[in-house]
């Protein structure tokens, strides 16, 4: 379903405080995340098909008609939900996509002053729909109050984010910490 929502949107905003967002994941990182959820839910879901679906969504990153505005909590750069070698590859991938014209990547530092708590991750598609992910559900919201609240939350978190070379420095520091 995310594939369709993403394909039909030109401006995508994301906030994630738990893991790297799917559209920026490497196959190995996606596999680790999806396997952990499959085990949590005791699901029979085909992890390889799900990984491929996430990788297919990444074609949008190279579509000049799309803009991805992604905010990540710095903690996700350090969370070892996967082996260190997989996380290292994932952090390298973040450094690559941070240079794309279609991607604005912000990292909210752990020491940043926040006006709102980090909370759960969500996507905003063209300011018309919000998808909030919980442990066991995706909430698809399109009412005015939900959109307004999530846009305000996203903009508030963005105020605390580091961008450009400052974001790349935070990613590089996390990458370096893996080898120490």
State the order of secondary-structure elements, H for helix, E for strand.
HEHHEHEEEEHH
Proportion of residues in β-strands? 15-25%
How many E strands?
6
- Indicate the CATH topology: Endonuclease, Chain A
Measured on Cα atoms, how large is the radius of gyration?
16 Å
Arithmetic mean of pLDDT:
92
CATH class division: Alpha Beta
Largest sheet: 6 strands, mixed
Q: How many discrete domains?
A: 1
Q: What would CATH call the homologous superfamily? A: Endonuclease Chain A
Helix content: 40-55%
Distance between the termini: 40 Å
User: What structural category characterises the helix and strand content?
Assistant: alpha/beta
CATH architecture annotation name: 2-Layer Sandwich
Largest beta sheet: strand ordering = 3-2-1-4-5-6
- Please work out how many helical segments DSSP would assign: 6
The stretches of 5 or more residues where confidence is low (pLDDT under 50) are none
């Amino acid at each position: 379903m995310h594939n369709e929502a993403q394909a039909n949107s030109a401006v995508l905003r994301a906030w994630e405080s738990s893991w790297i967002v799917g559209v920026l994941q490497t196959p190995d990182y996606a596999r680790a995340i999806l396997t952990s959820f499959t085990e949590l839910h005791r699901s029979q879901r085909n992890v390889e098909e799900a990984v491929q679906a996430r990788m297919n969504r990444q074609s949008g990153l190279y579509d000049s008609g799309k803009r991805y505005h992604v905010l990540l909590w710095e903690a996700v750069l350090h969370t070892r939900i996967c082996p260190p070698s997989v996380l290292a590859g994932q952090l390298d991938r973040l450094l690559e996509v941070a240079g794309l014209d279609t991607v604005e990547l912000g990292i909210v530092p752990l020491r940043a002053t926040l006006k709102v708590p980090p909370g759960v991750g969500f996507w905003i598609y063209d300011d018309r729909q919000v998808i909030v992910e919980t442990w066991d559900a995706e909430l698809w919201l399109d009412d005015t109050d939900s959109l307004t609240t999530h846009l305000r939350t996203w903009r508030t978190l963005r105020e605390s984010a580091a961008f450009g070379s400052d974001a790349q420095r935070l990613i590089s520091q996390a990458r370096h910490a893996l080898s120490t």
